[in-house]
């Protein structure tokens, strides 16, 4: 693979001139080396080599750098072609230039270089010989080529493509079975046929209530309540169980359980681990999205499209209740990445983070370990390193975006209404201001008189001597006195002159002070060349000038924008983000102009998300609070050569990483922002000897204002120099209209950036990129078709995932569902359908299942209904002794497995039993209980012990502070995808159930609840068993419980005794195991 | 001792499902084959236990184990070499060490005045001066020091040791972190089990307060918990009779016996108050500096755990001086306080293990996540230096009095026998009798190793 580097540049354009198949075959044949030294050295050079150099190489180097022994660092020194090619660190010898040759730096053992040889030291004489040799042009007679072995990595794509999981999903006939009475559906027939083959009989049917509990835990994560049980028993008609399954599928808790499974697969978490464990704002909305999606049975093909490209779909799926955009939430999972705030190498950091994303995508949708191809072609599967970097390129062409899902309710009609209302308000504002023109000459004259009498100079001098608190106090006194003496308008104008120093109105101040126009020709700041793309409804182009309107403020016009892009000018609730094209940092500062309120401007280098937080990256994020244009300037010397883009976020403070328990806060109704590459020359607006009042009158009456005049007029309002009377109905109308706009509701999603193709990282090193192009394409093992879509190519990727000829997607998904129901997948390794994974136990059944899943429209619920109503599912968990011996893993499903509830279900069941469980859905998560975890700077305040009674899925998943109780029961680490949790059985679990304060607290609550119930002690014991196990108590259990209460001295302290009994119930195996 | 790994599926169940805490015992309970070692050893071990002294924050190697006279000579001058990007990028001039170095013992290993007690054990140490780290930032370097990967959430070396070897003591966990109070940058989960079964999570012990989460019974009434357990045993025995077919259920029931014994054993083994006075004094339990007392208690706990056969013990430092070994400024004061906290206890630990005959079967590793720059950060601090730094190893299987590898004349880059954390991990596993190339766990489509595809054994440091 290292050879790729020396490939001659292949032409690369939008309509790929290099065919991918040809590229692959060239690569594997090792024909990509095009390298030869032009000058052949003279024979005496060869003599020098033979006499002096060869012995040194033989003694000190070849042990580690020859084809016979080892090829350390990818470097061969046993032939000329070896050092010509170079090693992993690049060229080692530059013929003729010893001081530029890495080999010399190393043998001289210089600082900053790895010393070679590592364990011995060349003599000074030997070092000198090598130097002389290189100075001579490194003559070397050893002309063997680099061996085929070293060239060929043994990767044969066509052979790899023969793997079973890459073959088309077959159409299979349902097999015959010996006992046609037993099966209830075709899945049963496949399973039974296999048992027939073995000569085994399926286990007996389990008691109905046991099967009901099983179904309830699998479908909703909750054990049936006594009420559920009563309902189940009440239906004695044929098909009662099927109806019960239907009720469970329709339960609102179904979505919670199945969302959680998917959260494992996409390594859902709300924080970024590392030093500060930053919170990613709004992540929990993805969890809610999943719950709704599973409850509504969004088909898996739609779900997949949304996951890859929900932001790019022509028609978005809307939440029927809120009308909000659902689809755009889908891509959020990509960015559940971890992150550190102070990486010294942002490219390395990007490579690490993208690796996690690629691993997740590969696992979740393909059942393939694509991430294994980061450093070389996959060791076992039909996955090339081009595949890996193709996906890398796709991700790199995508950018993190806080999308506003409420925007889906916005439309052209409403936009026009708002624009009209804005125009009316502007008109009314200008009309209102014109009514003041009458007394403006007098005000101006009076201010000029005060300037002449030296009052201006004195006031400035007085204030300049004072510091913050005194200055403010003094200013208030001056304003009060001035207002009393001169009236409010004169006071405002005079103090404006005394205090402000803005650019737009420089001409106004000059005229007030000197009575004449400012001199011509002063240049206004530099012009930049960024191309901006806006996302969200908020941004519009202000090329003809725009006013920032806010009728909730006295001045109404908050600012004027002559040119550029503007958001929040009509309503802060219309949100947006604007981004530049990609560019390469050359070390000089990156700059542009911006003004606004509540906005944030970020230089995003290598997609680095935590800009602004770390020691060196703190300069990359700027808050914008200025009604004057400011030049944002980012120093970039540290990141020379990296790719970057600019991003300005309206409502920027809401869209960011947060510390500890911080929350993003609420959108503010006065946020706005304007972005521009250049500034208008305001001085133009002040040219010519026209009296000030006439100039202002002129601005207020014209409809053809220049960009500079727009800003000047905006400035007159924003400084309060022109007053507005909001008597006109237009103001109230606009306020009312703005109130009807939904406040933005943010989710973390993606938008497309520039189309990008990532080169291959030789041996996975971000410092060694192939010079050959690596056009984006779908996985080579699945055809390798090029994805020539512009932007990210995510939508095209999604279509390839769902293409009928892709055999993996349906198999992988259906197998995941199967595994959740039967405790084990038909392919046991649910995340890996490659060679390192397991082979299917029932290959025909798998294909039948996959086909059925697709034919039924990719419906999760339809498939689950079939599986849960099968005869197989209703089998008892008691194995047949023969099968137990021959098939201890129960691969052939002779009986149903006993299962331990998931960590979340155990906690939920504890709360449900005690009556503390709240069953409401959705919302921001509860802080985890972390009192039992060591203190650190990143530790959030502890949440309540009982998590406010909410289901476990609503406890915040903070990577550095996972809830210890859940973690004891195999809650996943949430940093990497997990399709199937390991189920461990360790004493730490017993200790948690015996001694965790939550268990004690809830035991007491449960006791209090029981003691409030009607009936005898025996009735209460029976109720206890129904609550705990969803079945009636056996006689021996009643006796046991009565005895226990006695031992606990029930007559002395009833609640304490019952608490102890409840505690025991929680520790009984049936409490957390499902039979 | 059998070094074979059994592949019976029942064993498979054992090692996937029930390993960790007293796993050997549990295996014994289940199938009466007490030697069902978790993943197993590959050869005779030199060290039964490991004590990992984690010097969180990054000890300055040029101020401790790697003297560089050139720094004194060029003190205050602009570095004559190319300076690479650092975390704060506030790089100053060459800074000489504020401490003197002395040659200790027969080996004459130079150790600075920061560590007189450790220095007095010089002939027991193998000082590695050519260690390198994968990252210049704390969390990434911490993650990789623990797991070999700069990623959050990967299994740590302790978890791998537990996965490979379990515990020798059926009442105690195999893998313990004794937490000094300073949570390392990146979070305590860097010591976690990652994708290995959660059974290989460390038990985090605290030298003060509740020693282990959930280890104390909350019942106020004497005997109440025992009464509960007896009742539980009674009712559950009916279940295990009915479902004798289920390993899962049987193991879960048996766990209560183990849990109960742990409740007794853990507080007992960690109670250092039972130690004689001269031992307490030796470890610094009566020192003036509070942090010395805490770290002394941690070291003493570690020795007591080693005596009971606990496999892997990691000690985090305390943050009582305000910070870890991370002196971006105030090098002299910060390093002096950190050294004051750990030096005496570590010296005592080595000597105490020796006098008990445990030193030769216990591997001690002293390492931070990186070293510090030979030039100043600001005026009187040092930034992170991942390109070369020192760690040391001592005890089981280690050739004392050894210096291995070298940095350049400034101590900036390792230039001879450069090592990575993979090499460190390979040697640690090796000394525990585990071939780092053979100990694997199937994850993400690969048979993953602690050492990834790297790691070399260093005969030069082995006894």
What does this structure look like?
The complex is a heterodimer of chains A (1075) and B (463). Chain A is of the alpha+beta class and 1075 residues long. Chain A is 40% helix and 8% strand. In chain A, the strands form 5 sheets. In chain A, strands 3, 4, 7, 8, 9, 10, 11, 12 and 14 form a 9-stranded antiparallel beta sheet that branches. A two-stranded antiparallel sheet of chain A has the order 1-13. Chain A has a two-stranded antiparallel sheet with strand order 2-15. Chain B is built from 12 helices and 18 strands. Chain B is globular, with a radius of gyration of 23 Å. Classes of the chains: A alpha+beta (1075), B alpha/beta (463). At the A-B interface, helix 15, helix 32, helix 33, helix 36 and helix 37 of A face helix 1, helix 5, helix 7, helix 8 and strand 16 of B.
Q: What is the topological layout?
A:
The complex is a heterodimer of chains A (1075) and B (463).
Chain A: H1 20-28, H2 43-60, H3 80-85, H4 102-107, H5 124-135, H6 148-151, H7 157-160, H8 186-198, H9 208-220, H10 226-234, H11 240-250, H12 252-265, E1 279-280, H13 284-295, H14 300-309, H15 346-366, H16 385-396, E2 398-404, H17 412-434, H18 440-452, H19 455-465, H20 468-486, H21 488-499, H22 506-514, E3 532-535, E4 540-541, E5 546-549, E6 557-561, E7 565-567, E8 577-580, E9 583-584, E10 590-605, E11 621-634, E12 643-649, E13 657-658, E14 672-676, H23 692-701, H24 707-718, H25 729-739, E15 746-752, H26 794-802, H27 808-822, H28 843-855, H29 860-868, H30 881-886, E16 899-900, H31 903-914, H32 964-968, H33 987-995, H34 997-1012, H35 1017-1029, H36 1035-1047, H37 1054-1067, H38 1069-1072, E17 1073-1074
Helix pairs in contact in A: 2-5, 9-11, 11-29, 12-13, 14-26, 15-16, 17-25, 18-21, 19-21, 20-21, 27-28, 27-29, 31-34, 33-34, 34-37, 36-37
Chain B: H1 9-17, H2 23-31, E1 49-54, H3 69-73, E2 91-94, E3 101-104, E4 109-112, H4 116-119, E5 125-131, H5 138-147, H6 157-165, E6 175-178, E7 203-205, H7 224-242, H8 247-270, H9 277-283, H10 290-307, E8 312-315, H11 331-355, E9 362-367, E10 371-372, E11 375-377, E12 384-385, E13 389-395, E14 402-404, E15 406-407, E16 414-416, H12 421-431, E17 441-443, E18 446-448
């Amino acid at each position: 693979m290292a050879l790729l580097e020396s490939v001659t540049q292949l032409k690369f354009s939008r309509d790929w001139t290099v065919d991918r198949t040809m590229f692959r075959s060239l690569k594997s044949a090792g024909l990509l080396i095009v390298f030869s030294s032009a000058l052949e050295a003279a024979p005496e050079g060869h003599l020098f080599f033979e006499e002096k150099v060869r012995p040194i190489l033989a003694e000190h180097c070849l042990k580690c750098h020859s084809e016979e022994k080892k090829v350390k660092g990818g470097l061969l020194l046993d032939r000329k072609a070896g050092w010509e090619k170079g090693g992993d660190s690049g060229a080692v010898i530059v013929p003729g230039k010893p001081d530029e040759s890495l080999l010399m730096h190393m043998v001289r053992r210089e600082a900053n270089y790895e010393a070679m040889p590592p364990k011995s030291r060349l003599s000074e004489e030997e070092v000198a010989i090598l130097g002389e040799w290189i100075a001579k042009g490194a003559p070397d007679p050893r002309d063997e080529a680099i061996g085929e072995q070293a060239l060929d990595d043994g990767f044969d794509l066509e052979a790899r493509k023969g793997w079973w999981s890459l073959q088309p999903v077959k159409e299979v006939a349902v097999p015959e079975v010996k006992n046609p009475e037993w099966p209830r559906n075709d899945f049963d027939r496949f399973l039974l046929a296999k048992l027939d083959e073995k000569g085994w009989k399926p286990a007996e049917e389990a008691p109905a209530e046991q099967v009901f509990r099983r179904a309830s835990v699998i479908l909703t994560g909750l054990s049936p309540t006594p009420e559920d049980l009563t309902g189940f028993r009440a239906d004695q008609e044929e098909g009662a169980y099927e109806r019960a399954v239907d009720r469970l599928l329709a339960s609102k808790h179904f979505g919670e359980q199945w969302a959680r499974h998917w959260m494992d697969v996409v390594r859902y978490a709300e924080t970024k681990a590392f030093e500060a464990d930053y919170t990613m704002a709004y992540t929990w909305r993805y969890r809610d999205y999943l719950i709704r999606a599973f409850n509504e049975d969004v088909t898996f093909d739609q779900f997949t499209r949304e996951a890859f490209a929900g932001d790019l779909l022509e028609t978005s799926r809307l939440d029927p209740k809120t009308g909000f955009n659902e689809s755009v939430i889908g891509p959020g999972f990509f960015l559940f990445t971890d992150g550190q705030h102070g990486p010294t190498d942002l490219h390395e950091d990007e490579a690490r983070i993208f690796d996690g994303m690629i691993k997740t995508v590969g696992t979740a949708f393909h059942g393939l370990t694509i991430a294994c191809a980061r450093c070389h072609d996959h060791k076992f599967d039909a996955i090339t390193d081009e595949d890996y970097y193709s996906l890398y390129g796709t991700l790199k062409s995508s950018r993190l975006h806080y999308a506003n899902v409420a925007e889906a309710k916005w439309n052209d009609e409403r936009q026009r209404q708002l624009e009209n209302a804005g125009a009316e308000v502007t008109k009314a504002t200008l009309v209102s201001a014109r009514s003041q023109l009458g007394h403006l000459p007098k005000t101006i004259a009076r201010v000029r008189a005060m300037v002449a009498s030296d009052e201006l100079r004195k006031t400035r001098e007085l204030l300049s001597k004072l510091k913050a608190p005194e200055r403010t106090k003094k200013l208030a006194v001056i304003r009060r006195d001035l207002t009393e003496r001169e009236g409010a308008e004169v006071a405002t104008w005079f103090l404006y002159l005394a205090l402000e120093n803005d650019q737009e109105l420089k001409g106004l101040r000059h005229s007030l002070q000197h009575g004449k126009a400012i001199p011509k020709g002063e240049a206004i700041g530099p012009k930049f060349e960024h191309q901006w793309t806006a996302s969200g409804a908020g941004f519009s182009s202000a090329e003809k000038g725009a006013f920032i309107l806010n009728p909730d403020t006295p001045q109404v016009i908050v600012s004027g924008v002559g040119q550029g892009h503007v958001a929040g000018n009509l309503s802060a609730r219309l949100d947006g983000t604007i981004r530049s094209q990609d560019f390469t940092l050359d070390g000089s500062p990156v700059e542009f102009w911006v003004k606004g309120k509540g906005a944030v401007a970020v230089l995003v280098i290598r997609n680095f998300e935590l800009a602004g937080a770390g020691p060196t990256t703190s300069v990359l994020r700027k808050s914008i609070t200025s009604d004057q244009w400011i030049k944002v300037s980012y120093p970039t010397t540290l990141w020379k050569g990296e790719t970057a883009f600019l991003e300005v976020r309206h409502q920027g403070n809401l869209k960011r990483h947060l510390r500890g328990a911080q929350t993003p806060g609420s959108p503010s109704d006065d946020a706005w922002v304007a972005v521009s590459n250049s500034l208008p020359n305001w001085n133009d607006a002040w040219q010519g000897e026209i009296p000030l009042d006439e100039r202002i009158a002129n601005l207020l009456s014209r409809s053809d204002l220049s960009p500079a005049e727009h800003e000047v007029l905006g400035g007159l309002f924003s400084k309060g120099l022109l007053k507005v009377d909001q008597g006109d109905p237009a103001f109230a109308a606009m306020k009312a209209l703005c109130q009807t706009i939904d406040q933005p509701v943010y989710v973390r999603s993606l938008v497309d950036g520039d189309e990008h193709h990532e080169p291959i990282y030789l041996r996975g090193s971000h410092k060694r990129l192939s010079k050959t192009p690596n056009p984006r394409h779908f996985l080579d093992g699945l055809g390798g078709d090029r994805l020539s879509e512009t932007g990210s190519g995510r939508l095209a990727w999604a279509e390839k995932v769902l293409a009928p000829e892709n055999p993996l997607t349906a198999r992988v998904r259906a197998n995941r569902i199967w595994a959740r129901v039967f405790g084990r997948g038909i392919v046991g390794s649910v995340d890996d359908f490659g060679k390192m994974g397991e082979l299917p136990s029932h290959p025909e059944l798998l294909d039948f299942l996959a086909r059925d899943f697709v034919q039924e429209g990719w419906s999760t619920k339809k498939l689950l209904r079939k599986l849960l109503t099968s005869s197989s599912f209703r089998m008892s968990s008691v194995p047949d002794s023969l099968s137990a011996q021959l098939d201890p893993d129960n691969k052939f499903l002779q009986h149903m497995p006993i299962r331990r509830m998931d960590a979340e279900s155990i906690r939920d069941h504890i709360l449900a039993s005690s009556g503390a469980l709240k069953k409401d859905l959705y919302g921001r998560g509860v802080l985890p209980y972390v009192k039992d975890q060591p203190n650190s700077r990143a530790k959030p305040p502890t949440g309540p012990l009982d998590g406010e009674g909410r289901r476990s899925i609503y406890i915040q998943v903070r990577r550095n502070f996972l809830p210890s109780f859940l973690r004891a029961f195999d809650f996943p680490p949430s940093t990497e995808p997990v399709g199937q949790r390991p189920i461990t059985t360790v004493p730490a679990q017993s200790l948690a159930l015996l001694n965790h304060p939550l268990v004690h607290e809830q035991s007491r609550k449960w006791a209090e609840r029981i003691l409030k119930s009607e009936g005898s002690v025996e009735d209460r014991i029976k109720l206890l068993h129904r609550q705990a196990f969803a079945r009636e108590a056996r006689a021996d259990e009643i006796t046991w419980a009565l005895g226990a209460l006695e031992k606990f001295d029930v007559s002395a302290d009833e609640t304490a005794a019952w608490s102890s009994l409840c505690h025991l119930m929680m520790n009984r195996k049936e409490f957390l195991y499902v039979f | 001792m059998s070094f074979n790994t059994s592949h019976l599926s029942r064993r498979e169940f054992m090692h996937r499902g029930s390993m960790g805490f007293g796993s050997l015992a549990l295996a014994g309970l289940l199938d009466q084959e007490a030697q069902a070692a978790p993943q197993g050893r590959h050869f005779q071990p030199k060290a039964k236990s490991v004590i990992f002294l984690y010097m969180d924050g990054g000890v300055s190697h040029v101020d401790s184990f790697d003297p560089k006279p050139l720094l004194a000579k060029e003190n205050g001058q602009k570095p004559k070499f190319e300076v690479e990007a650092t975390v704060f990028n506030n790089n100053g001039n060459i800074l000489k060490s504020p401490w003197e170095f002395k040659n200790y013992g027969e080996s004459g290993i130079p150790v600075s005045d920061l560590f007189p007690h450790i220095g007095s054990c010089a002939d027991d140490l193998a000082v590695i001066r050519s260690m390198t780290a994968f990252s210049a930032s704390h969390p990434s370097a911490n993650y990789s020091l623990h797991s070999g990967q700069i990623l959050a959430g990967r299994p740590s070396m302790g978890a791998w040791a537990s996965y490979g070897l379990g515990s020798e003591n059926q009442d105690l966990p195999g893998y313990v972190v004794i937490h000094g109070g300073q949570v390392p940058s990146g979070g305590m989960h860097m010591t976690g089990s990652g994708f290995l079964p959660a059974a290989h999570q460390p038990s985090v012990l605290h030298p003060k307060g509740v020693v282990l989460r959930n280890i104390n019974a909350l019942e106020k009434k004497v005997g109440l918990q025992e009464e509960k357990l007896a009742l539980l045993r009674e009712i559950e025995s009916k279940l295990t009779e009915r479902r004798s077919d289920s390993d899962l259920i049987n193991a879960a029931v048996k766990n209560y016996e183990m849990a109960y014994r742990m409740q007794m054993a853990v507080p007992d083994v960690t109670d250092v108050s039972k130690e004689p006075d001269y031992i307490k004094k030796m470890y610094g339990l009566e020192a003036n500096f509070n942090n010395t007392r805490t770290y002394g208690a941690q070291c003493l706990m570690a020795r007591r755990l080693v005596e009971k056969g606990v496999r892997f013990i990691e000690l985090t430092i305390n943050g009582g001086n305000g910070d870890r070994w991370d002196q971006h400024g105030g090098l002299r004061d910060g390093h002096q306080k950190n050294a004051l906290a750990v030096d005496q206890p570590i010296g005592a630990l080595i000597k105490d293990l020796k006098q008990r005959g445990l030193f030769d079967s216990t591997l001690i590793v002293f390492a931070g996540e990186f070293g510090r720059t030979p030039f100043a950060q600001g005026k009187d601090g040092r930034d992170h230096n991942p390109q070369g730094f020192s760690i040391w190893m001592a005890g089981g299987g280690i050739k004392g009095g050894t210096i291995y590898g070298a940095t350049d004349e400034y101590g900036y880059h390792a230039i001879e026998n450069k090592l990575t954390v993979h090499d460190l991990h390979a040697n640690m596993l090796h000394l525990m009798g585990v071939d780092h190339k053979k100990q694997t766990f199937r994850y993400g489509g690969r048979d993953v190793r602690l050492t990834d595809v790297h790691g070399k054994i260093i005969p030069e440091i082995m006894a």
